[in-house]
Amino acid sequence: MFDIEPVTLVFSFVLFGAFTVPFIYHSRKNSQKESRIFQQLSESASKLNSSIDTKESWRYEYALGLDSQKGILYYFQSTEEKAPTPYRLQDFKKVYVTKKNLEFQSGSNTKSVLDKVSLELTPKDSKTSPVTLELYDGEKYSDLMGETLIADKWAELLKKHLN
Question: How far apart are the first and last CA of the chain?
């Protein structure tokens, strides 16, 4: 058995605390951001006498919420500093995922990089332009964090409510 000096023990705890405090701080800060986003979604829904039963957020800046009973989709992007936007699904006939790639050419090799991922809602009225809901923008973020999976999941969910 070996003995640990009290000074070494205290120093070890101080270093451990100094290492973990930033992670705890950022974790709490991000959970507060997420709860604020969900609170804004709920407030927007309550203004329309609606309640969100399915919701998802990512990057602590984006959120989607759905009231499946009333057929209302809520989209929120905190970078635009505005309230969540409601969309009545009865006004749309089709939803699909759009992906935009950038092509880079180096010598004889061409490399394709995903630049944008979004959901596009096609309205029933042909005079109205489609609604694009941004899920990922390559100019803002350097990597994907599951946005393609989120897009596919929500496209399937919305297709069920459109039919």
Answer: 71
Q: Which of 100, 106, 105, 93 is nearest to 134 (CA)?
A: 100
The average pLDDT across 26-44 equals 91
- Residues 73/65, Cβ–Cβ less than 8 Å: yes
Contact by Cβ (8 Å): 93, 71: no
Q: How high does pLDDT run on average in the chain?
A: 89
pLDDT at 80 over 70: no
Alpha carbons within 13 A on the beta-carbon side of 102: 8
pLDDT value of residue 103: 87
Q: Nearest Cα to 73, choosing from 93, 46, 55?
A: 55
DSSP-derived secondary structure letter, 107: T
CB 132 within 8 A of CB 149: no
Q: Which of 130, 116, 122 is nearest to 159 (CA)?
A: 122
What does the block give as tokens for 119?
């959901």
Question: Taking the complete model, does pTM exceed 0.90, yes or no?
Answer: no
Environment class of 61 (CB within 10 Å of its CB; exposed 0-12, middle 13-18, buried 19+) = middle
Identify any residues that bridge with 56 across adjacent strands, giving them in sequence order.
64
What is the mean predicted confidence (pLDDT) over 67-91?
87
